[in-house]
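Board notes, transcribed. Complex of a protein with DQA.
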Amino acid sequence: MHKILIINGPNLNLLGNREKDIYGDQSLEEIEEISKKKSKKLNIKLNFCQSNSESEIIELIQSVQKTYDGLIINPAAYTHTSVAILDALRAINKPKIEIHLSNIYVREDYRKTSITASGVDGSICGFGYLSYILAIEALNSLLNNNK
Ligand code: DQA
């Protein structure tokens, strides 16, 4: 059974109340539940976490090399600012996917650049909570050698 980690960055704990027109109605707990259901179907063990702290996120990314088979990360606002998170991602030699609920390419100019995206295998954005489900499917394919 593959073991994967989903990391959620700052302010994603507020989903369900925060800018619903952009991020949707689902709370992070609801997204966790849907993600766990999907993972179970694919015989994946999923750990799901959230942190508002850049250093905690870096430590979680570092834990992937030893403890997990793959990583999905929504770095939230750190996407656009954090070379430290990019470096942590580049140090991990496991399949990695960046996700966003919103389509960052149609928003403010400062959101159109992802610093962290060059540290992952691929990115999925703009599908709301479905970005999480699509990423679990993609990671599952990568873990099973694209089968
Ligand atoms: C986000 C997009 C980021 O620009 C923003 O800072 C977030 C959420 C998304 O999932 O759409 O907090 O990562």
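Residues 11, 74, 76-77, 79, 100-102, 104, 111 surround DQA (CB under 6 Å). The chain is about 35% helix and 20% strand.
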